[in-house]
Amino acid sequence: MRARLIAIAASLGLALGLGGASTGYAAGGAKEPPDHEWKHTGVFGTFDRAELQRGFQVFQEVCASCHSLDYIAFRNLAEIGFTEDQIKAIAVEYEVEDGPDNEGEMFMRPAKPSDYFPAPFANPQAARASNGGAYPPDLSLIVKARNNGLDYLYAILTGYEEEPPDGFELAEGMNYNHYFPGNQIAMPEPLYEEAVEYADGTEPTLEQLAHDVSVFLAWTAEPELEVRKQTGLKVLIFIAIFTALLYIIKRRIWAKLH
Amino acid sequence: MTTPLHRYKVVQWIDYRLPIFSWANEHLIEYPAPRNLNYWWNFGSLAGIMLVIQIVTGVILAMHYTPHVDHAFNSTEHIMRDVEWGWLMRYLHANGASMFFVVVYIHIFRGFYYGSYKSPREILWWMGVVILFLMMGSAFMGYVLPWGQMSFWAATVITNLVSAIPWIGETLVTWLWGGFSVDNPTLNRFFSLHYLLPFLLCGVVFLHLWALHHRKSNNPLGIEIKSPKDTIPFSPYYTAKDMVGLGVMLFVLAIFVFYLPNFLGESINYIKADPLVTPPHIVPEWYFLPYYAILRAVPDKLGGVVAMVASIAILFVLPWLDTSKVRSARFRPIYRQFFWIFLADCIVLGWVGANPPEGSFIIIGQVCTVYYFVHFLIILPLLGKFERTKPLPESIHQAVLGKKGDGFGSGGAPPDSAAPPGGRGSS
Lengths: 258, 427
Fold this sequence. Notes:
Order of helices and strands of chain B: HHEHHHHHHHEHHHHHHH
Distance between the termini of chain B: 39 Å
Largest sheet of chain B: 2 strands, antiparallel
Structural class of chain A: mainly alpha
Helix content of chain A: 25-40%
Number of strands of chain B: 2
Structural class of chain B: mainly alpha
Oligomer: heterodimer
């Protein structure tokens, strides 16, 4: 059955031609996400630790009730500026399953820094059942898993409209969003002004919340970003000088020929 | 070569028993190369270096990767997040594959331009075509390994092409999959073959180089080496020249690895494979796009597959399709025009392959596919008969050093910008 399904889907795909890196996700009436200003993009860009930590707070208090963050362990929070004690304090707030113990039973215990963020639902079925049939995707890689993911994420979070435009048929339980393919998204508007009370006193406007959580998820997707770009700069400078020397050597060697 | 070539006793001792030093001296140092090779001749050795980079990074990645449908995606993320410099290995390997194709495609088009496939280098050329096939197989299976959405669906679409073969197609696909769909057995064998093929590739590269060193390199003039005056030793001249190209290539590769690591990838491959969710657009990696366009240009599935395979297999008979006695496009004014048109045709095919076959893309794709084959099957055979070629220089050293040239220190044009009588190539 599954094989046939796949075969049919594949040949359908072939017949329809599939393709179109350039068409992107702007299908189905969705608007192109506007360019937003980020500190960590660009050759020298680095993550702003305050933004990251606020973004983590937004994730923890809002997103985490439905979305998992499978690839991030509590210990990773050290990379965004939390101290060891802070990380321990964050971890113990969560319960994780461990075991089996000597009796052969699984048991729950407070999380340790080496544990990964527990998922809010036990399995995709449970997640769907609690979310009107829609599956809240894991957010660890979401910024890399969408075209232009960073701007797209920010646009989605700020792109809700309470009432769909005239003549737009909104399905039961769906919400109107300017940037989601098809303009209908199952996720209700997650962020609004003062949705979170920031620990550092920053004013929690919708734009600020969306910006911070997007930066946090950019980090969860590419935790190596800063090391990568800093290493890259050294590597490029080295290769540039080395290549210039090689060229000079080549000229000298060939000069003997004529 | 057993003369006092080697200063050290231990080297002499070894070389007497196993002449690796003499061999290296003969093929890497004294190997007589035409004195007029330009920078387009860098791309062969660059391809070899890319192969080495791919094998080294690949072997390291394989130490941390788990070829199982439940673990492949996670182990890839483990490499990216937990393995020391794992992200560097993976990004080098993924972008290295693209760099490898860039270099090899330039190498192939250099062959087209200067007629490097012509007698007596047909078998050398064949080995190159076999290398291209092996590269494509390796690259395709490697792309499947992270087991993202595009990995899975590309594997499904491409393996399904085999089902177009009459009678046995369906059975063959089941055999390829090791089951009734792309699943764990498929992933396992792809991993195994992805590790195997590059070593087969090394073997064919050896034959490629053997043939090359037997008949020696072609050159921008496309005339044979006639006397020692036409050649210079590979070292130091071409080692130095190849190193410059290597530096430039590594610079370009580093820009992608460190600053645009996912620019050439598909974002949905960061979503774990899901057999129940078909992505809206399934596209291959950029280096397969022209073939993908040819595949889709034919309305019939079997016809499309045949056209796609033929688009590369036709290279095997290229030495006989091109009937011209003159190799280099420098002396073939009309072929030179058709070379650029053909290159443009391939690029347009790639662009068509990246887009959904709708509206004008369909007709553009079909026209370009037809032209692709017309180039090989009609234009090249006829050109050889009707084209008026320019007169060839008498010898390489005369063309390079001028009439009175007698080798070293006689002045004249620099060897890599030879201006033969009758104009020069626009490359």
